[in-house]
Write the structure tokens for this entry.
Amino acid sequence: MTALDARALASASTTPRGIRRRGRVRWGMWITLVIIALFTFAPIYWLLVTSITPDALVFRFPPTLWPSEITLDHYAEVLGNPAIFGYLRNSVIVSVITAILSVVVSMYMGYAFSKYRFAGRKSLMYFVLSSQMFPQALLLVTLYLVFAQFGLLNTYLALIISFTTFTLPLCVWMLKGFFDALPDDLIEAARIDGAGPWRIFHSVILPLAAPGLVAAGLFAFVRGWNDFIFALTLAGPDKQTLPPGLVNTFISEASTSWPALMAASLLVSVPVCVAFIMLQRFLVGGITAGAVKG
Amino acid sequence: MTSPTAHSTRAPRRGPGAPLSERAFLTFLLAPGVVLLCAVVLYPLIRSLLSAFFDESLLYPGMDFVGLENVLQVLRDDFARLTTQTLIFTIGSTVFPFAIGLALALVLNQRFRGQAYLRGAFLIPWLIPGVVVSFLWMWIFDANYGVLNGILMSLGLADSPVAWLFQTDTARGALILAKTWNSFPWIMVMLLAGLQTVPTELHEAAAMDGAGVVRRFFAVTWPHIRGVAGLVVLLEFIWNFQHFDMIFVLTGGGPAGTTATYATAVYDAAFKGYDLGHAGALGLVWMVLLTILTVVYVWLSERGEKSEKGAAR
């Protein structure tokens, strides 16, 4: 008898009891999967269906789970609304500049943490990391006062400065990881060739870290795109981004235009999902690897 | 700040200017980030906590020192209520997503066709913006036309529509349900990464010894993922303890203040009551509480690890 046969014979799964047990486990797995899938996808289905159901069918009770008529009117309504376009423009401006600024600031900081040893390095790294743990609702109160003092309320700058800072912990960490992976010999060789630290970083290191820069930028973009509380409080009506903008436009005490709100919600979610699909390669690998090792 | 760099110790310094330029360069690297973090995180944090000791308002300038008056007022009037409610939201929004995330991670860790796409699809609730998640659940819970009431009534499980978000006995549960939907995918991803570190040979060996699924989970799987699981629970706890967006949009802390947490209370105190002293005092109590809970958690998990190692020996 070969070793393989012995293994197969000894394995619990080949005995009748084992097979029955395995069958039960399989069933358990499938049932779990179906229940969680229902919980996950039913709300998404409802988001989609509501956005394409005519008003007459939406505001009827009990609701029709499978609409007899579909319409794209709500999407036309959202895209034709000049106010929404204003919020969209604000969101794009704020998120794009936040992304660029975050990448610039965090690439310098990440490089310093990765390749330099200096007094206070450890404590500074802990400070950067822990800064995302402080309650933002609390920071908001004073930020409001500070921005008011400098006349920055209702400006893009107030939002960009806040969002950039809040993305730093994660962006610095991501980029530090990228720089860590680049060998020190590279720097050494450039130095021997007579390049100064400025040139070494900008013409040798930076091009190699490009994928990391893109990943960090996308992350920062999503952070700016998704924020609600800061955009609501620090930006006035004409500088507000989409999340608070949608609340202003669609939700009122009297009535809420649910189908249009669902259509708008879907449109707001698209850029984030696209960004994630592009990010996936870096994010899931990078973040979870760090977490598992740590 | 001195700058002996990792590489400069090996390379000969060329010229007296070299170390100085390295130091200047290091300062240049760190300065923007440090300035931003100090201006946007450190200063506002200290300033908010300091205003706990002053009578200060958004409506008029100036501040009067009042000592512990604000803090004592918070401890007397808000502490019990807000702490209970914050903990209910935090624990509920950590436990349920963890259970679902773990179950799903275990299922998706098996090999079957289409599993990679399914993993991606399960991430959607976590990907869409928090405000959109709030809108969606607001619509599902809607008292007049909500699909939840519709389904429950057609199944005969309810006689009349329920205003889920506006009743004191259902609002908390509804909020936790929506938050659970939003946060389990992240936990699933993290735990899946942890599950990937479990060697399959160990499972096979345990199965050969006749260990059932449950035994194998606790003897083989759990020890490998407990590190990630602990981190996930800690981070979820900290985030939920400070969560604002969904509570603000879905219930605004209502009805009758039953879903208010420290996060919404600080916001209300500052931007509705204009009372910065009260907001600062709430924030101070909030931070102290969070620090204590985190220290206790870390201490407990370290102790658990030690005793487990002791038992293994």
In short: Residues 114 and 177 of chain A are 8 Å apart (CA to CA). Residues 1-13, 287-294 of chain A have pLDDT under 50 and may be disordered. Chain A has 14 helices and no strands. Residues 16-51 of chain A form the longest helix (36 residues).
